[in-house]
Design a protein that fits this description.
Radius of gyration: 17 Å
CATH class: Alpha Beta
Shape: globular
Number of domains: 1
CATH architecture: 3-Layer(aba) Sandwich
CATH topology: Rossmann fold
Order of helices and strands: EHEHHHEEHHEHEHEHHHH
Strand content: 5-15%
Strand order of the largest sheet: 3-4-2-5-1-6-7
Length: 260
């Protein structure tokens, strides 16, 4: 089965990108789908959320500069069927350095190509920095599908338009003409507020066939899990957050034909 590359991006911070990258990946792995998380955020939140210590020289910083390969950076996690390419602070320098090289938007695609060709993973999930800089644009150029996390809050839709315009630019410039919006994951849903429901309804109106039915609730347990270096399934498997990500994984498997 071919490898499918997803990038989880949004230029806003605090919208549940990393939480979704880590827990969606863990939920896919629980279904015996070989999954690789690529932590492309220099803050390395996905790395620590999977219980991995940051190590100098273990990110994609070297391979993006033409030094070493992505294979050398793969780190096993404690979860079966789930591996990680960690991040490190040095990756922040790549934001500046990438812009100075040739084919600067296609560098990540070239780095990930051997991983794709190996068919070792059914899904690769890239967690991006909270900005549409060089690293995020590289992830869009390398992906098959963009998954957008959108918090159920006022003004969330403004950021949605901006990232969709960037997708269209990459397609029309022939940098990644096959890139598609895979779906919108609504996060931080608060059942006590009308606003959460209104935002979900608004997105459904604009992108009816793209929004996932599974809505991620705003819960303390989801916020706490990363500080213990655990996925929600390891931290509190019976929580509403764990149930929501299991349901999201089922939708993703169905929508994109991912099978173990």
């Amino acid at each position: 089965m071919p490898t499918t590359v997803f990038t989880i991006a949004n230029q806003k911070g605090g919208v549940g990108k990393t939480t979704t990258a880590v827990n969606l990946a863990a939920a896919l792995a629980e279904k015996k789908i070989h999954t690789l998380v690529v932590d492309l955020d220099p803050q390395a939140n996905a790395t620590s959320a999977l219980g991995i210590e940051k190590q100098t020289g273990k990110s994609l910083y070297g391979p993006l500069r033409g030094e070493g390969s992505a294979f050398e950076m793969i780190t096993p996690t404690v979860y079966e069927h789930l591996a990680l390419i960690p991040s490190e602070e040095d990756l922040a320098a790549a934001e500046i350095e990438l812009a100075q090289g040739e084919n600067y938007l296609a560098r990540l695609r070239g780095v990930l190509e051997p991983l794709r060709a190996s068919n070792g993973y059914r899904a690769i999930i890239i967690d991006c920095p909270p900005a549409l800089g060089m690293l995020s644009m590289n992830s869009l150029a390398a992906a098959d599908f963009l998954l957008i996390t959108l918090q159920c809050e006022y003004m969330a839709l403004e950021g949605l338009g901006q990232i969709l315009r960037n997708v269209e630019r990459l397609k029309s410039a022939n940098i990644n003409p096959a890139l598609e919006l895979g779906g919108v994951v609504m996060t931080m849903f608060d059942v006590r507020t009308n606003l959460s429901r209104q935002v979900v309804d608004e997105v459904k109106k604009h992108l009816p066939d793209k929004i996932f039915d599974s809505v991620i609730p705003r819960t303390v347990r989801l916020s706490e899990a990363p500080s213990f270096g655990k996925t929600i399934f390891a931290y509190d498997p019976a929580s509403p957050g764990a149930t929501a990500y299991k349901n999201l994984a089922k939708e993703v498997i169905e929508r994109f034909g991912l099978k173990a």
